[in-house]
Amino acid sequence: MQNKLIKIANDTNSFLKNFIKKQKKTELISAMNYSLFPGGKKIRSKILLDIGSLFKVDYSSLIIIGAAVECIHAYSLIHDDLPCMDNDRVRRGKPSTHIMFGESTAVLAGNSLLTMAFEILTNKNLKINEKIKVNLIKKLSECSGHLGIAGGQYLDLSFEKKKISKNKIIDMEIKKTGKLFSFCCMAPAIIKKKSIREINFFEIIGANIGLLFQIADDLIDFKGTSKIAGKKTRKDEKKGKATLISLLGYKNAIKYSDKIRSKIIHDLKKYGSDSNNINETLNYILTRKK
Ligand code: GRG
After folding, report:
1. 72 lines ligand 1 (CB under 6 A)
2. Given its phi and psi angles, is residue 195 left (phi above 0), alpha (psi -120 to 50 degrees) or beta?
3. CA distances from 169 to 155, 162, 213 (A)
């Protein structure tokens, strides 16, 4: 698994480096590069490839789409770390972008990465027809805005220090974290012009993967070490964050995540042995330390 992630990271980063190299130089590029490279685990790209393997979508198209997703992800992390959001000084084992470049530059570098994601989806090297590209752009926009990541982040901040129900926490986590995974799961089905019903099926698979991913992330905050995680841990309790761990407790949160994993594996069994790829990724997500 680790070797697969390294290959995905190398291929994604070389696409992004080339893409940025071809653009006119600006003062924001240093901060954009700082938050993109070497970057994180590329787990969203791995999920995209895993689901892509069910539909035999070609690797190079998926790497380009994954690069767009990684730009939005990097943007969300830059903004998440800002003092007006979660106020974190360390990310991916190095100072957060606003610590290195200042707040205003971090905001603008984040915004530039968001818009660059959509520019990447219009790239001529992405060999899929224009109508499908427009559908991908539509879905990725929906997943990123107030119905998705941004809306989920709003809920996350507004839930601090309040008693929040399980359903509301799940709704917030599916938006904040799950929507980008939903996009990764829907994209291959959109490319292969599958029915709305099948696309919706993959949206739900992505939401469940996002939930699983967020629970694992919260477990790292609860039990992990800052050195390995590459970011400050034990923050959720201090900030009074509404998480499934704070509501259900550590052991029950693990039981709940195992239940979600079994459901995803069960739901994807009908796609045959290619679904083993995603099972491997789910195991990785649940046992990761960073
Ligand atoms: C992106 C539209 C948009 C708005 C920004 C700040 C914000 C609004 C959203 C925050 C979303 C957020 C930070 C969700 C948490 C998701 C999460 C657990 C991130 C960590 O992901 P990893 O572990 O990171 O995949 P690496 O470093 O490996 O890439």
Report:
1. yes
2. beta
3. 9, 11, 14
177 lines ligand 1 (CB under 6 A): yes
Atom in ligand 1 nearest the alpha carbon of residue 85: 6
Per-residue pLDDT tens over the stretch 24-34 = 999 999 999 99
Amino acid at 48: L
Residue nearest to atom 1 of ligand 1 (CA): 76
Dihedral sign computed on CA atoms, order 11, 12, 16, 19: positive
Ligand 1 center to 76 CA (angstroms): 5
The reported pTM is 0.94
Bridge partners, residue 94, by sequence:
91
CB-CB contact of 233 with 225 (8 Å): yes
CA–centroid distance, 123 to ligand 1, in Å, is 24
CA 170 – CA 245 distance, rounded (Å): 12
